[in-house]
Amino acid sequence: MISNSPKRRRVAIVGGGVAGSLAAIALAKLPQIESIAVFDRVGAFGRGLAYSAKSPWHRINVPAYKMGGVGAEDTEGFADWLAATGQSDWRDYSDSFVPRWVYGDYIAAQLSKIAASGRAIMHTDVIKHIERTQSDYQLTSGQCWTFDIVFLCLGNPSPSPFPGIESTPRSITDVWATGALDPIRSHDRVLVIGTGATAVDVVIDLHRRGLQQPITMISRRGLLPLIDAPAQTDPAPLEHWSEPTARGIFATLLEDTRHKMAAGIPWQTSVDTFRLQIARLWTDASRTERERFSRHLRAIWLVHRHRLAPDVAQSLDKLQSERSLDVLAGRIVSAKARPAGYNVTIHRRGGTAMQMTADWILNCTGPEERYDRIENPLVQSMLASGIARRGNNGLGLDVDDTCRIVDRSGTVQTGLYAIGHATRGAFWEVTAATNIRQQILNVVDMLKTTSS
Ligand SMILES: Cc1cc2nc3c(=O)[nH]c(=O)nc-3n(C[C@H](O)[C@H](O)[C@H](O)COP(=O)(O)OP(=O)(O)OC[C@H]3O[C@@H](n4cnc5c(N)ncnc54)[C@H](O)[C@@H]3O)c2cc1C
């Protein structure tokens, strides 16, 4: 007798961080999935880069209740888990921005349930190549594997070396690499490039490690992330703008936010509700408008979007008032190597030049977004073979609106998905755990009704 039941699918997930783990957990519920193999090059299952952090001052950048759960049904999953495991005794709002490893514990615990049930198998291995055959995908590490569906959950690539800085061991490009900050001594002068969340983490880290010298941070505009506030309900989320350009949309958002602030609603609430529209606005925008946003508005948006726990913001204020932290707006013109450090020339915003010496330069400018420049062997091999191409405005990898990879000829690759940072060019707002989870749930919903 010939069976009419659809073929059960073998799934590979490349990347075992939060994206890969959430994908495995969601896929494990589908009866049409035969097996799930999760590959991670460093074995960081459930944690990935962000939640492998070990210091208590490396905190999640939103209060715990905003991190959500693992699926559509458990919207307060993380907060509930914290309560169930006796970890939610928060004295004030700042305490709810728990250490990142705690969120890693939560995701790793959920993942280990499906691993223990045999539904998913973890492999500490680097996938270097992927090839499409007529009926499936072949993945190559040291060995060859065959799957029907592949999820690429590759995470945030390291930043590229900063232009104008001579390469020496005193310039650190990947501050998250294990032990990267260890050689810095307490009397060293440190220049941090970038003023975003990673830069703030590093400054707090260096301070806690006992750095005695003032730290200098620099970015084009010298803007630090702003402070978070408890969420409120937005009574009238913004949905229409007079002019659908980057500037027009921002002008409308600003006006709307001012009105709401006058009515006692914090600006953070307006920003958070507006954020839900970003993916659609980015997708609909022209290439030119996307470029305008990236050039003129991105830095201002990011400091409002990625915020700091109130006590972290206070620590930064204190460091600045004690002159232990100097935040500059400007650009590095050159950084010439000298014995054990650099002579740096800076052009300050507004016109003046300044010189400084630094024993270390730390690149905290954020992950590289142009995937033709990243070192991941899998991505390089995919771009070279043409199974993938660069995304909109050169960012990430090209995907369609359901996260399926688009190849060099413009053909959608059925069964081959990218999740998270790699989809930046298509959706822009793709880094937070909540955005990643939504992407996965959309794909998994689709898989319930289709074969791949
Ligand atoms: C320092 C930091 C702090 C953050 N804090 C927050 C926060 O508080 N809240 C929030 O919502 N978001 C935060 N984020 C955003 C973060 O990007 C997401 O929350 C999430 O961690 C991304 O998960 P991921 O699985 O996509 O990437 P990752 O966690 O980077 O995992 C990707 C994994 O893929 C593996 N991998 C890559 N290529 C291969 C390959 N070829 N073969 C095998 N394995 C491979 C890597 O080794 C890695 O373990 C933070 C990000 C960073 C960097």
Categorize the overall geometry.
globular
The tally of helices reads 12
Annotated CATH homologous superfamily of the largest domain: FAD/NAD(P)-binding domain
SS strand fraction: 15-25%
| CATH second-level architecture of the largest domain | 3-Layer(bba) Sandwich
CATH third-tier fold name of the largest domain: FAD/NAD(P)-binding domain
The set of bound ligands, ions and cofactors reads: flavin-adenine dinucleotide
Element string (H = helix, E = strand): EHEHHEEEEEEEHEHHHHHEEEEHEEHH
* Count of domains: 3
Q: Work out the radius of gyration.
A: 23 Å
Major sheet: size, sense and barrel closure?
Answer: 7 strands, mixed
Which class best fits the helix and strand makeup?
Answer: alpha/beta
Order of strands across the main sheet? 8-14-9-10-11-12-13
Look at the structure and give the CATH class of the largest domain. Alpha Beta
| Share of residues in helices | 25-40%
Low-confidence stretches: none
Quaternary structure annotation? single chain
Extended strand count: 16
